[in-house]
Amino acid sequence: MKYTKDHEWLRVEGDLVVVGITEHAATALGDVVFVELPEVETMVAEGDEICVIESVKAASDILAPVDGEIVEINDKLVDNPGLVNTDPTGAAWFFKLRLDDLAVLDAFMDEDEYADMIG
């Protein structure tokens, strides 16, 4: 698994990248009450706002970590946004991206580097 400075995790599954937020981010947000997901087949560029997460504390955006195409979304989060708090690195993934080159993921942090960043 790889990590971004924006507290997203990236997990490779075959030729796709699954994207979610880290436990650290989920804890900082507090109880998540709403998730807005992107449309499937949307082409995104690194840094694009893709999802909106609202909690009792704040609203936050999930940004595209890389360029790619949204090929699947996690509809379970729409009906049960609290999954973000109970299983942020498992059942609460947000979307799956198809990339031209998975090698771009080499630039992201591994688990130890992310742990060092969040202290």
Rounded average pLDDT: 96
* CATH fold description: OB fold (Dihydrolipoamide Acetyltransferase, E2P)
Largest sheet: 6 strands, antiparallel
Based on CA atoms alone, the radius of gyration comes out at 13 Å
Helical fraction equals 10-25%
State the distance separating the first and last CA atoms: 18 Å
SSE string:
EEEHEEEEEHHEH
Strand order of the largest sheet: 1-2-3-9-8-5
The tally of beta strands, per DSSP, is 9
- What's the CATH H-level homologous superfamily? RNA polymerase II/Efflux pump adaptor protein, barrel-sandwich hybrid domain
Give the low-confidence spans: none
Task: Outline the structure in words.
The chain is of the alpha+beta class and 119 residues long. It has a single domain, classed as RNA polymerase II/Efflux pump adaptor protein, barrel-sandwich hybrid domain (OB fold (Dihydrolipoamide Acetyltransferase, E2P)). 19% of the residues lie in helices and 36% in strands. The protein has helices spanning 23-29, 76-79, 83-86, 111-118; strands spanning 2-3, 8-13, 16-21, 32-36, 43-44, 49-55, 59-63, 68-73, 95-98. A 6-stranded antiparallel sheet has the order 1-2-3-9-8-5. It is globular, with a radius of gyration of 13 Å. 30% of the residues are buried.
